[in-house]
Amino acid sequence: MNFKRLIPNALTMGNLLGGAYVCWEAASGADITDGRIAAVWLAAMFFDVLDGWAARKLGVEGPMGVQLDSLADLVTSGLAPAFVSYRLICESGACDSLMLNTLPALLVVAAAYRLARYNVSTMKGASTGFFEGLPAPAAGLFWMGMTLWWGAASTGSDYQIRVMLIVASVGMVMFPLLMVINRPFFGLKTWGKDKTVDAVRMGLGVGFIAVAVGTWIAWGNAYAAVSLCVLLYSSLALIFAPKDITS
Predict the structure, then answer these.
(1) Beta partners for residue 132, in sequence order
(2) Which of 114, 126, 148, 187 is most buried, by CB atoms within 10 Å?
(3) How many of the other CB atoms lie within 10 Å of CB of 110?
(4) Who contacts 183 (Cβ-Cβ below 8 Å, separation ≥6)?
(5) Tell me: the pLDDT tens digits for 187-217?
(6) Are 197 and 240 in contact (CB under 8 A)?
(7) Which residues contact 165 (CB under 8 A, 6 or more apart)?
(8) Is 121 helix (H, G, I), strand (E, B) or coil?
(9) How many other CB atoms are found less than 10 A from the CB of residue 81?
(10) How far, in Å, are 184, 196, 236, 242, 247 from residue 191 at the CA level?
(11) Computed from CA positions of residues 92, 97, 101, 102, in that sequence, does the dihedral angle turn out positive or negative?
């Protein structure tokens, strides 16, 4: 048995269990605006970054790790956002709306499709430096940020709550669509392949800081910036990624 494989696999399981914990808390009626839940969720997504890095550094990359990673991501970036968004729908008084209740289910379906497509492209050895469709973890990061914003908005103005609900609604509709479309999205790595994309990446950094400062000035907290920055990245990555990525 290659014990080195246990390290990235343990990180992957940390990702899986972190996402499962968020689901359990949301389903149990716990206060999901508690920062400890967001911290566990963020740690799970951090493990998702580390497991692939650890596998490459240890020379133990393989198809099993790819499958485990996607299964863990389905929980952290598909089921957990669905549970949290459903809680938000119910607590906003729209729990009986059939149309709204469908949207969290679409998050799970879209994440599963997106991750399966990623696995297929990985097995084919395809690597262009771009994602085909929005990466599923973007939805996890968006909804993790929403839990923090939700907690801060509950003690804020009615205007902030309305803005938060609008952003949440946009995320419920937007992320399933962006995950399944056949369109390249640029990541925040692999610089030097396209000057326009590199310029947008640099602009994103400035934009992220501006959003954080703006939300702090407007509402006295920067929690809203997490979800808004994910929306900013998603929009710009869709608009500015080149249509032809075969070269």
Answers:
(1) 184
(2) 114
(3) 22
(4) 132, 133, 238, 241
(5) 766 666 667 777 888 888 899 999 999 999 9
(6) yes
(7) 88, 92
(8) helix
(9) 31
(10) 15, 11, 16, 14, 15
(11) negative
224, 215 contact by CB (below 8 A): yes
For residue 93, what are the CA distances in angstroms to 87, 89, 100?
10, 7, 11
Q: How far is CA 137 from CA 4, 79, 203, in A?
A: 26, 11, 22
Amino acid occupying residue 115: L
CA dist., res. 171 & res. 39, Å (int) = 21
Q: Which residues contact 126 (CB under 8 A, 6 or more apart)?
A: none
The distance between the two most distant Cα atoms of the chain, rounded to a whole number of Å, is 58
From CA 183, how far away is CA 237, in angstroms rounded?
Answer: 10
Determine if the pTM surpasses 0.85. Answer: yes
Phi, psi for residue 123 in degrees, rounded to 5:
-65, -30
5-24 pLDDT, tens per residue?
A: 788 889 999 999 999 999 99
8-state DSSP, 191:
T
